[in-house]
From TrEMBL:
Domain of life according to the entry: Archaea
Xref: PROSITE patterns: 4FE4S
Entry protein name: 4Fe-4S domain-containing protein
Listed GO MF terms: 4 iron, 4 sulfur cluster binding; metal ion binding
Gene3D superfamilies: Electron transport complex subunit B, putative Fe-S cluster
Domain 4Fe-4S per the UniProt entry, residue ranges: 1-54
Taxonomic lineage from the root: Archaea, Methanobacteriati, Methanobacteriota, Stenosarchaea group, Methanomicrobia
Record carries keyword 4Fe-4S: yes
Coiled-coil ranges (or none): none
Pfam families in alphabetical order: FeS
Keywords: 4Fe-4S, Iron, Iron-sulfur, Metal-binding
Length: 208
């Protein structure tokens, strides 16, 4: 990390989204991350840019996070918050199905071919926060009844960055939820960061 830090401008201006250059250096993983610093594009840092690209090649060896189903590269994997069984998701049934806390639901996220099973942990104004309990498992009981919520919009994820760099607020990111059966890359916008815990909104499964 020190080698990367020495090649950054050292202005600690915060324009990259981090408090200081040291924080940016700790989270740089690939050549594209150089563009986070608005000063690195200037001529006076051209040699530093070249050296940074070489350093980041070494840093990214063996750490690339690639989606299984789509082959796209993600910024990080998203694991459950401490003590929770899966990432939290905020969902809304397109057909207006009303859910309540404690409901076990069967649904399919818009843009995903896999049927999901979940437990509702809270509801508010049509938004339902859930924990995944499927698609493969049925709470260990094939006789469990699930409410059919049909196709649902996925609005947000709450979880912990497990592997990869910690993003900054306002950044559009690509990520893979660790519980995703297809290990597909999702995208969204970071609206909250607290240590490694993040909230991602504007979720999109159509990632190019």
């Amino acid at each position: 990390m020190e080698g990367i830090l020495e090649l950054l401008p050292g202005y600690n201006c915060g324009k990259c989204g981090y408090n200081q250059c040291r924080d940016l250096a700790e989270n740089m993983r690939k050549a594209e991350d150089i563009g986070l610093c608005p000063f690195m594009g200037k001529q006076q840092f051209s040699e530093n840019r070249k050296k940074l690209k070489e350093l980041l090649k070494d840093r990214s060896d063996g750490t690339n996070i690639i989606g299984v189903i789509d082959g796209l590269e993600a910024d990080f994997t998203l694991a459950p918050l401490t003590g929770e069984p899966s990432c939290r998701e905020d969902i809304h049934p397109i057909d207006g199905t009303e859910l309540k806390a404690g409901d076990l639901v069967r649904y399919r996220p818009l843009g995903c071919p896999i049927t999901h099973f979940a437990k509702v942990i809270k509801t508010s104004r049509g938004m339902n926060t859930i924990h995944m309990v499927g698609p493969l498992q049925r709470l260990g009981n094939e006789d469990v009844e699930f409410l059919d919520a049909g196709i649902c919009l996925i609005f947000a994820f709450d979880g912990k960055v497990e592997k990869g760099r910690i993003p900054r607020v306002g950044e559009t990111v690509k990520f893979i939820p660790t519980h995703c059966m297809m290990q597909k890359v999702h995208s969204g916008i970071i609206v909250g960061v607290e240590e490694r815990n993040v909230r991602i909104e504007a979720i999109d499964l159509k990632v190019w």
